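Appendix B, example 12.
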Amino acid sequence: MTSGKIKAVLFIIVFLLIVAVIASWFVNREDARRAEAEAAAAAAAAAAVTPAPTPEPTPEPTAVLITPQPKPAPAATPVPTPVPTPTPAPTPAPTPVPVYGDLLGTGSFSSETGTGIDLSVDWSVNTVSADKVSVSITVSVLSRNVYSDPMPLGLHVGDQYLTLTSNLVDYDGSDLTYHTLGAQSFTVTAPAGQTTSIPVEVSWHFAGTYGVYDVPVIECGTYINVTRN
């Protein structure tokens, strides 16, 4: 290579080095400016920050003496007034309803003609009301062999008198036998709480003969004493 070319190459190399140094200087200078600007901006920002307020000291708590208040006495619970239990009205005892129809007595009586034929009367007394009784009469003839057409049969009880027609009697036997002539009931006054004597009379108009005896009528009677409580 000629010396002229070598010089030219060297010149170029030197020139490039100079350019590099200048460029590096500009780059460094620009970085320094940028760093200064950033530092100034940071300082300005730090200056603009408001300082935190200094906390005030917390005052020491002052002891307060609390006087205990007396507890109020509990209110008395009102005692309910007992409601009186109503006394039930006494139930009146039911008035007993009188029952009538009670049997007060029974009995019988008969005649004593001495002729072999007689009357026999059975009676019974029952209550009807507070002052009345019923007297029932059944009249029979007691005999052996006897025949009689229906004949008047008189009944007298208390103050009442009644004539019936007796039943036909036709008996052909040797045994002493009862044959019913008739029956009737009478209502008679007999107040409660006392004894009443009731007259009873019976007459049968046989109007015939019996054996050797002439027997126109057979009669008998008695008093029935009725006691009521």
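The chain has one helix and twelve strands. The radius of gyration is 79 Å.
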